[in-house]
């Protein structure tokens, strides 16, 4: 009756699969924002109090103060429930004594017996109703704590300072949100038994003394002995939990980096070292899981056999004292022990176990919450007519920037913007900002959602303004060609967009905001010259012409129109910018005046910019129908072979038979048989539990390995259309449930099933007529279970898919944290997180609410059997989701029977023969009928407008998807080779540089193939040696997540150092110098010419001066080769596409490029 409101949902779920729209909205008091702010207020109060008392704040105290009142009320009902359980054996004893002294003429005794029977029935009914309502409310209490903590963790993540972000990782935060907070769901279930249990034991001792006298002390002594033993177990659980949590952090952090950098990992053929790294973490994790599982097995074996041991010793002493065993004494004693057995052997130790585990989680969450936050911005924002900002440097000089300012390198230009945004702490001086800032970051950031969402970024849609921004940012044509226009969903971190599209969406977001000051961090580096000119003239100098703009750029041709130029010099301390004004002007003029004098803004903009192909993100699928028997079989087979499973089955049956016949043997005074059966019960109970847990933990280990291996072999397209959170969800929450919850629930469900069968068999042997009641009850039980599971299973599956957006949103938000804070959008992103939480919480509460609402008509073991069997099926949805990722489409084998010669490729001849290329079987063709040869030692530049197919050419060469047609390298058909044999023989400096959370040494040489001297020499070649030498541990310094303690340009230089170390005959440079200044670019090009003199080099670039000295230049457009010849030859055709691209750089720059091409032509091939 208490949960009748779920009936409509059950009816829908029974008829068809549930959808999100079928579910009820979460109640206001359970909303993520409400719960989070409440707990946050108690935490803030605790922090203030601790600061006054000069001590460390305790998050545990804040949680207790927030929830103790409501949770204490549930303790009272727990006490009433346990008291009712003790009343039952007392009434049973009185009833049995009536039958032992049965007198047909004793009507008063008959009347009392009827009252006793009525009392037993009412107590059973009270227990049935109270237990599940109480269970539901306790689960709600745990859910409220979990949701509140998730809200606080995300809120804290949005406030972390840059130094604090170096102390945590995305993987650790995901682990906090998925596994640590879930401990409180379990803790709330058992915590009250820490005080209810001892009281219950004391009452039972008194009753047993009255029933069997001093003999009861033996049984009580055994029970009391179990308590400190369980306490020790709890401490050991805490130790293993702490170790496991740290290892899980490392594993999920590594998984996050693997999924994020999968394209790079595949092109470097680094799958094996990353597989070894994850395997190392997972192996240590499994060792600790196995130890804690063996403890759980001992716990369960104790619960299974403790009552039999206690009864054996109790009645052995009882008989030795000269007493006679009677039925009433046996059953009353057994029932009283049974009333506290669950509390002492299961609930009390579980409370200790969960308490110690939760204390570890609280400590981890507290450590995270105590991380340093970004200082509250003390700048005063207003809307004056003359918006400007003033920077006072550490030397006391200042600069006021009222209109358009261009900032030039060498390195600290992004740090200047960071200081203005308040992201970089100032050692001295102040930054005063008047007006509202907006910011376009250097590495374009987009979040999962529609393109329109990314541009509007929370602002209201103004159609006229929106249209104007799309045109200014050269996005109009792209929107027209997309399947759903600007409502097209894009993947995590914009994986479905090209680099140029992400850069333009990133810029459009900043432009659409009606701000006073625009900070633009190198927005033109990821687009080609034509699009760059369009963005500069139509957007930066067009739609924003009346706004102050700070443009960081490496493209000197645009400096002519700047109102001021701020040149930054490197300073003695890394990443601390020191802006120079008058001095820098003289320095700049002396260094670059000759170049600047030739820059001009005279050019013609092509009004019909071509659009790019965009992939679209796919929605997460979910299974339908029941969990198949085959799924259970696959799960168990992952942990043991057929023989192992047969042994497990036999041990289960033997353990149950010995358990079932213990008490009947005592009743017939077969004391020796009872002793033997008790010993067998203990032995087989322990063996069964340990064997069961071993098999299930091995199953989890095997399935994780299969899933990870499958992920590593999945094609790149899979990662382009599936958000990071979706993959991490499997490796964090689903694997977490399979590691901990599923084994103990699975074992318990099997144990309850066998106990139920044993009770029915033994009862039927004594009173066959009982089957008349049992069979209908069993039929009702099976029907209710099926009726319940139709809905429960769908909700669990929906819960799994709604978890993914939580992790995706977290990962995306951390990646774009500077942008979010620059736009003052923290609260909006918090609201989005809360919305994801509310949907997920709604599902969690529903799962608990319908948790046993239809089982309350069943009694005792049937009730628990319904719950546990249903919970197993619910948890098996995690196995189902993991299994789904073990059966993904795989790319070609890493090695094949055909192995290339050891010195292959010795020449570096690359031939494309009729190549067509698409990223997926049903995707559009992005390279068409490509026929070209790259000759040995030839330096080839590849150019084209954004989206022309330049990066797709690289993807085809590395076989990131299988091309149609033939590609030969030194005469060997690449499609016949293993992917590792192919990819290891080519070097690439990628468009998006990726560093991993490891040492600099491991980032350069993950296979340990090179000496220290070679590593330092490679860093010297790319001008990073001095930077690395200043690191605390030099080459052994652990880099921050994604290498965030290096600039984008420095990360690109690390990738160049990797290429130098590999010494391959073929080198591909994909926009590698887009984020470095011209001087560094020149140094890199000189290094490439010297170190790769004997190599075939393909250089993809937007800067034409980078590739103008190539032997030949390939011009791509719409996936087709438009021109392929020497640069000077191409420039002789005024109608040619390359000639037009050169002219768009400006008149004087075009003359320089022509002169360089002519010089190269006269010098002959390299």
From TrEMBL:
Where does the UniProt annotation locate this protein? Apical cell membrane; Early endosome membrane; Endoplasmic reticulum membrane; Recycling endosome membrane
The record ties this protein, via SMART domains, to: AAA
Give the way it sits in the membrane. Multi-pass membrane protein
One Pfam short name: ABC_tran
The ABC transmembrane type-1 domain, residue ranges:
73-350, 673-844
Repeat recorded as keyword:
yes
Q: Which reaction does it catalyse?
A: hydrogencarbonate(in) = hydrogencarbonate(out); ATP + H2O + xenobioticSide 1 = ADP + phosphate + xenobioticSide 2; leukotriene C4(in) + ATP + H2O = leukotriene C4(out) + ADP + phosphate + H(+); ATP + H2O = ADP + phosphate + H(+)
Keyword line: ATP-binding, Chloride, Chloride channel, Endoplasmic reticulum, Endosome, Glycoprotein, Ion channel, Ion transport, Isomerase, Membrane, Nucleotide-binding, Phosphoprotein, Repeat, Transmembrane, Transmembrane helix, Transport
GO terms assigned for molecular function: ABC-type glutathione S-conjugate transporter activity; ABC-type xenobiotic transporter activity; ATP binding; ATP hydrolysis activity; intracellularly ATP-gated chloride channel activity
Entry GO CC:
apical plasma membrane; basolateral plasma membrane; chloride channel complex; early endosome membrane; endoplasmic reticulum membrane; recycling endosome membrane
Bilayer-crossing regions: 71-95, 115-136, 215-233, 300-321, 640-661, 673-697, 740-761, 767-788
Domain (ABC transporter) spans: 360-595, 910-1143
Q: What is its EC number?
A: 5.6.1.6, 7.6.2.2, 7.6.2.3
Question: What family classification does the UniProt entry report for this protein?
Answer: Belongs to the ABC transporter superfamily. ABCC family. CFTR transporter (TC 3.A.1.202) subfamily.
Name this protein carries in UniProt: Cystic fibrosis transmembrane conductance regulator
